[in-house]
Design a protein that fits this description.
The chain is 59% helix and 9% strand. By secondary structure, it is an alpha+beta fold. The protein folds into two domains: 66 residues, no CATH class; 133 residues, no CATH class. The N and C termini lie far apart (52 Å).
Length: 226
């Protein structure tokens, strides 16, 4: 949503009598910004009464939200500390180290706390899948895949190719993203396209892998100075 769209939506919701806190839960913008956007909007007396009545409840919900966020941060920090300790033991395992480096280079680090890996090299993608299955103790059908192709590439053939290369079942592939001709996308068309893989329900795993990356760097630093 563009800034002007957020502004107009925020103003319209304010005219309906919503508080800034309620609007901020719908429109991705700070309450301070909303206050500036809506400065000239006058509320009716019933609208003001309603906002005054819900403020205590909103304060409680915000406090609970802050507590939950703080707990989530604590859990993530605990997982990362434990993972850094794991890395000191696993750093001598070539496959583990290769997978960590691969994710460090090609995996998603933000904004969502989940494991996502994208590449066009079948061997590297297969390495990631093998590594994830082995070291993250994944259950059945843990992956979701999506191809990024250019216009004219046959999606069914490319899905079959990547399914064979990765071992990911065809039913776990989402509809491909097709780059149309005449866009500003790069022109060097990759024959098999690029595959983006998401590990389902991987919030805790994400923090573990981030801890592994930190731990591997520390292990390398220690070995170079030892």
């Amino acid at each position: 949503m563009k800034r002007w769209e957020r502004r107009e939506l925020g103003q319209e919701l304010r005219r309906l009598g919503l508080s800034y806190g309620e609007i901020a839960s719908i429109v991705p913008v700070s309450q301070g910004t909303l206050s500036g956007w809506c400065r000239g909007i006058a509320l009716t007396e019933p609208q003001q009464d309603r906002i005054r009545a819900i403020r205590p409840h909103l304060a409680v919900r915000m406090a609970v939200g802050r507590q939950l966020h703080a707990r989530a941060l604590d859990r993530a920090a605990t997982i990362r500390v434990a993972a850094r300790a794991e890395a000191k033991i696993l750093a001598h395992d070539p496959l583990w180290s290769a997978g960590v480096v691969a994710y460090w280079a090609e995996g998603a680090k933000r904004p969502k706390a989940e494991l996502r890996f994208s590449n066009s090299d079948p061997a590297l993608v297969a390495l990631f899948v093998r590594w994830a299955r082995r070291y993250l103790e994944l259950g059945d059908a843990p992956f979701e895949a999506r191809l990024h192709l250019h216009d004219g590439q046959e999606e069914g053939e490319r899905r079959a190719f990547w399914s064979r290369a990765t071992g990911i079942a065809l039913e776990d592939f989402r509809k491909a993203f097709i780059k149309g001709e005449g866009t500003e996308h790069r022109k060097n068309v990759l024959y098999n396209g690029t595959i983006a893989i998401r590990v389902r329900s991987s919030g805790a795993m994400f923090h573990r892998v981030m801890g592994w990356i930190d731990g591997l760097q520390e292990a390398w630093a220690a070995s170079s100075t030892g």
